[in-house]
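Look at a sample.

——
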Amino acid sequence: MWIAISALNLALAVMLGAFGAHGLKAKASIEQLGWWQTATDYFFYHALGLLLLGIMAKVIPQIPIKASFMLIQIGIVFFCGSLYVMALGLPRILGAITPIGGALMIAGWLVLAWHAFKYAR
């Protein structure tokens, strides 16, 4: 299931990146295009990270990934989603949730580090 969710994230990241590059370019400001690009970059990085977590769950099942996966996935929605909606011209107040998404992504990676250290002992 983890790999399937990761693959869906990656497909969506490609679609959103293409939309930003082709469909949004003529309609958005430089600032909005920057938000879109940042959202797409982070979406790709973290979707690839989720794919690695999914593979890791198969290779090293002793390291629990569920909490990390969920924190990162929710972080993607908050961080990238808020940047995407701002880039589409929706209220900038939605940018207030961007740091929450970033904090969730960071927490997901830190939880993974914690579990990996515990496993390494």
In short: Helices lie at 2-23, 30-59, 66-87, 98-120.
